[in-house]
Q: What sequence folds into this?
């Protein structure tokens, strides 16, 4: 699979949507649908992606699409996929169909975590994707459990007493892995082919799969719109957002690191300096930057160990 | 027809088995639990052809059922009380998406305080959610309502609740006549949805701005208006297989009555005996029971009640509004009358004995208070 081949595939996520220029969500969704390359039904939680692509009477989706509510895309797709399985068993449907559930970090890690966990435990054959833009962007950049330490959001503001978010990100990948589903991965649009490959791996596996994807947000992260991919690259190269996969077979986890910057591993400040949401850390508050760096280093070493690197 | 002695919950489970939906997604809650346990037994034995999803909450039950119905299959869930409250967000969405989902609800009081027994606070909370609502007096009603309701729902593309009184009918055994599977199969027919996520590329659940939301709501409202005629004809069709001719309202000795109580659910049965005993003493009393609450057939209701001198509404939930409940308000406005009185009764499963109904008949035309209570220590 190369980029040329991919771009020749029929686009099922079309232009004319109202996502901000430079938004990661459009880039990622296009990649996901191109990677699947067969009939697909998409479920989408209430989010920027949903409001920007399905405003009646227009739609950006050239595949079937269902939006139900904010916290329940996983349960909704459980129902769609189960209906399909029954019809298939009864020979009332011939086509092979794949199912993808998109949710933001709010819709998946916070309010939708129960629905997500339930669907994983029940083993529905659905690819779940978290478009992690690290806040509730659709409603105006409020903190989520996926907002990183130190980040400004409209509900974690910068003042004398408090300086941005005071907790680290929820590790949703580990939570998914704990369900012992066959495939979990983390990806970034800056590593496009890696992302596409992960999607095709996920849909080729029988059972639930989950991919956590970093989704840059121009107004939420406060960077220049042409820099979306650069920001993601800094996230990957600083190991703030490592790329890896976890296969589980018969209860045995196999962790695989997909990218190791080795001695080119960048300090996290390079990632922070690109974004206005970390402006208060660019020159001051070094203790916070140190804390962030230490957390990244610890998690990176831990990940390498798991991946036997 | 096959005669059986079964509970209201078993009647629902049996109806589900006969409807044989492709997807059932449910979560247990007293007093609904027996329904899904019985259904799970059918499922384990291979007596149903669909899939049972044991979801992790009622919110997910309704969400999964919306997904399945969106995929073009018959889909069901069942619940009570807190379960209905938890899923309420998606209850509204199911109606707006025009998905003909059948949901049996076993009425139970809403918390707090937590209580497992019957009143109608749960389904009254959902009375304006865009769902059709059928209520049942006894186990035969519960069973029959399931088929009628499903057929109506699929004809008008609106979801429907079939409600029965928790424990009072759900856990009591009664004689009922069951129909043969092939009779039901023929009556409900094959489900052929207009739209289907698995067949065509469609966008379901889009986002509306002020330029379309109102039109979509208007159409939803029209479906509710139009459902009146559809229900009438479906009742007629159902009478051909059952020999029972149902209507929106059940009436008992209404024709020459001077005093009438309007009520919903199982109390209607015991109220009939009270009517008989009062009539033996020469009192002209009658009752009207509500079978179909949504749509509210106000025209028919007016015809039935306009000549009645004294009317009381007995309502088994308290709206806590400083005024009366939904049924009370609906009846007052249908009749354009302000002399109708409300009696709130039986909350949280409080026993409703004949003396309470007798008291309502005796006192309804006395006193100035519009909103009254019966059967409570004050
Ligand atoms: C039950 C409920 N609570 C709150 C909201 C308001 N709301 C809609 S989208 C959203 C945030 C979405 O954030 P996320 O899932 O991260 O997606 P993003 O827009 O960032 O892509 C919120 C809070 C809602 N629609 N429903
Ligand atoms: S606010 Fe952020 S996530 Fe939402 S459309 Fe704009 S760039 Fe995308
Ligand atoms: Mg988000």
A:
């Amino acid at each position: 699979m190369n980029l040329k081949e991919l771009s020749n595939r029929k686009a099922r996520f079309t232009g004319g949507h109202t996502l901000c220029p430079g938004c990661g969500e459009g880039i990622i969704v296009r990649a996901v649908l191109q990677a699947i390359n067969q009939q697909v039904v998409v479920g989408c939680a209430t989010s920027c992606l949903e409001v920007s692509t399905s405003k009646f009477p227009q739609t950006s989706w050239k595949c079937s699409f269902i939006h139900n509510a904010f916290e329940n895309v996983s349960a909704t797709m459980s129902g769609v996929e189960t209906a399909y399985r029954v019809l298939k068993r009864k020979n009332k449907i011939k086509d092979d169909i794949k199912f993808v559930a998109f949710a933001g970090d709010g819709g998946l890690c916070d309010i939708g975590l129960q629905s997500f966990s339930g669907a994983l435990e029940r083993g529905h054959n659905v690819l779940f994707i978290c478009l992690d833009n690290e806040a509730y962007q659709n409603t105006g950049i409020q903190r989520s459990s996926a907002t990183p330490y130190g980040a400004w959001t409209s509900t974690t503001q910068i003042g004398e007493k408090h300086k941005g978010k005071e907790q680290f990100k929820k590790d949703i990948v580990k939570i998914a892995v704990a369900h012992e589903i066959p495939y979990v991965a983390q990806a970034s649009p800056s590593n496009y082919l890696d992302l596409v490959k992960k999607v095709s791996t996920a849909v080729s596996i029988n059972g639930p799969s989950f991919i956590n994807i970093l989704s840059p947000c121009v107004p939420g992260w406060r960077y220049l719109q042409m820099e979306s991919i650069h920001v993601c690259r800094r996230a990957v190269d600083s190991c703030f957002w490592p790329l890896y996969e976890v296969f589980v077979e018969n209860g045995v986890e196999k962790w695989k690191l997909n990218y190791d910057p080795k001695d080119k591993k960048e300090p996290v400040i390079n990632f922070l300096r690109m974004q206005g949401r970390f402006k208060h850390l660019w020159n001051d508050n070094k203790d916070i930057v140190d804390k962030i760096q230490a957390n990244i280093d610890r998690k990176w070493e831990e990940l390498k160990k798991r991946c036997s690197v | 027809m096959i005669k059986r002695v079964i509970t209201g919950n078993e009647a629902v489970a049996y109806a589900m088995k006969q409807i044989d939906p492709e997807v059932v997604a449910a979560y247990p809650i007293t007093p609904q639990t027996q329904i899904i346990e019985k259904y799970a037994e059918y499922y384990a034995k291979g007596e149903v052809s669909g899939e049972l999803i044991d979801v992790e909450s009622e919110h997910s039950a309704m969400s999964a059922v919306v997904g399945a119905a969106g995929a073009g299959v018959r889909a069901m869930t069942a619940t009570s009380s807190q379960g209905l409250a938890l899923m309420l967000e998606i209850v509204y969405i199911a109606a707006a998406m025009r998905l003909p989902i059948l949901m049996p609800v076993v009425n139970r009081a809403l918390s707090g305080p937590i209580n497992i027994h019957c009143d109608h606070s749960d389904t009254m909370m959902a009375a304006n959610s865009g769902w059709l609502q059928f209520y049942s007096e006894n186990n035969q009603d519960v069973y029959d309502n399931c088929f009628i309701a499903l057929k109506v729902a699929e004809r008008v593309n609106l979801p429907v609740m079939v409600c029965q009184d928790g424990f009072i009918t759900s856990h009591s055994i009664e004689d009922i006549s069951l129909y043969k599977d092939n009779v039901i199969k023929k009556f409900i027919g094959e489900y052929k949805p207009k739209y289907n996520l698995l067949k065509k590329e469609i966008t379901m659940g889009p986002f509306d701005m002020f330029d379309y939301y109102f039109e979509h709501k208007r159409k939803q409202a029209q479906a509710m208006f139009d459902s009146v005629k559809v229900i009438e004809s479906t009742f007629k069709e159902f009478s051909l297989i059952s020999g029972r001719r149902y209507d929106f309202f059940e009436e008992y000795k209404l024709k020459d009555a001077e005093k009438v109580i309007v009520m919903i659910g199982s109390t209607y049965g015991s109220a009939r005996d009270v009517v008989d005993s009062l009539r033996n003493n020469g009192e002209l009393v009658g009752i009207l029971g509500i079978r179909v609450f949504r749509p509210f057939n106000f025209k028919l209701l007016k015809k039935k009640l306009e000549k009645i001198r004294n009317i009381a509404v007995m309502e088994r939930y308290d709206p806590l509004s400083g005024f009366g409940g939904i049924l009370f308000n609906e009846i007052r406005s249908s009749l354009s009358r302000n002399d109708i009185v409300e009696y709130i009764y039986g909350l949280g499963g409080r026993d409703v004995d004949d003396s309470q109904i007798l008291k309502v008949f005796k006192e309804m035309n006395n006193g100035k208070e519009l909103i009254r209570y019966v059967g409570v220590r004050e």
Observations:
- Chain B has two domains: 2-192+201-242, 251-373.
- Chain B touches chain A at residues 22-23, 25, 49-51, 53-57, 59-61, 63-73, 75, 89-90, 93, 197-198, 200-209, 212, 216 (CB under 8 Å).
